[in-house]
Amino acid sequence: MRALPNVRRERALLWHLLGTALAVAFACSCGGPRVVQLHPVTGDTFRFNPPPPPTPPYGPFAATAAAEDRFNALVASWRTRLNASGSPGGAIAVVLDGHLRFAAGVGTRQAERDEPITATTRFRTASISKMLVAATIMWLTEHDGLALDRPLTDYVPYFRRGRGYDASAVTLEMLLTHTGGIPDSVYCPDGASLRATIDAHATDPYWAPPGRLYDYSNADYALLAAVIEAKTKRPFEAVVTEHILRPSGMNSALYTADESDTTVARGHVGGKVVWTHPIDCEASRAAGGVIASVTDFAHFAELLLAGGGTVLSSASVDAMSRGRAVIETAPLTKYGYGLVEGSRAGLRTVEHGGAAAGFSTLFRLVPERGFAVIAFVNGTTQPDDVVDAATSAFLGVPEAPREQAPADTARWADYVGRYEDATGALGKFTVFVDGGSLRAERPKGQARVPVVGGGTFVRGADGKVEYFVTRAGVARRLP
Predict the structure, then answer these.
(1) pTM for this structure?
(2) Is 247 left (phi over 0), alpha (psi -120 to 50) or beta?
């Protein structure tokens, strides 16, 4: 499941740390109806994987060309690129002026089979499913008295964690914004219930004090699903379907699909099928299990662009869309409630991505322009470039490379020191400056540990670095 937003997917080895450190620290800004003030989440984003090489532009797109012609040109170019990348196919939908205008599929549902993808082919959508769980939580705040500032244990009293902090310190808003300090652990066998999975991790330690820092965790949304079930006394899938999926027009979206269902794409890695049916595990479904088409998600985009329509209040939509916890400092991206607020070519964007079991997905809104684009791939080829190209084609912005901030080597000395991950995922390591690079070294004999290709050094109240945060774990700086 993709962490974002883009919750990015690249992996690297910790002891090969190479990259840039960004000097600006941001505090979250929270306000408005039903929004609780988070503990300020600050940090210096640090990249130790170089950004992927820029892809050739799709455009330029002639502003005088008809919108349909621009869409057809975009799809034709994407078809060629997917073929070259080894992914069997994909689907894309575009919302203009708040309404679904175009949708199309390219390629095939499964490699080496003549089963074309259409605009209504369903994909496993991975982590973009989180926005639907978040929307359900917001619906319950409006209609059933759910309170985001209440402790998780008020609703899920069986929630426990090992050494660290009082379980009652974790609030619903912390779960929505990935600031609860809970490790990213929702791995569960087929048939496992939410309760069984949560209980299985009852002795896991916290990554950090609840509310102290941002770190993307699929477990947060599994716990939110448990809140939905506790509040409604019904399976969370049924509640999400009744209150969000069907009222928003996501009529073919669901959490289960038969293996023989020919309306569902197969996931591929390296051209080979790796996914044919959902894992029947509630925690995994909560974090990224919706099976839907791009047109389904285009209808949800219409709902958000309309300020919630008849489903959610405009205040709830705004609360979901406004970032609170900093993910990256350049370009500035912040996690809201199941959505990520950022920018592209000077436009404010609200988006989320996903990656799981041979699927890659991306959902983007440009609220102030009534625009949305949704793109799914049944392979590991990321849809970011076609989403950027669609943004360019229909909003007239350049297909510029993604913003990259220069390294501020003057700050590297702040990061030097010894670190340890209490959960064991990262182990112990030492960060040091080596010529023109910032590196990390692990004690001799320790195995290499993969981590997502970036992290954040988080400072304490005294301004000194206290944590190094990655998707694989959180390490605290040792005295």
Answers:
(1) 0.89
(2) alpha
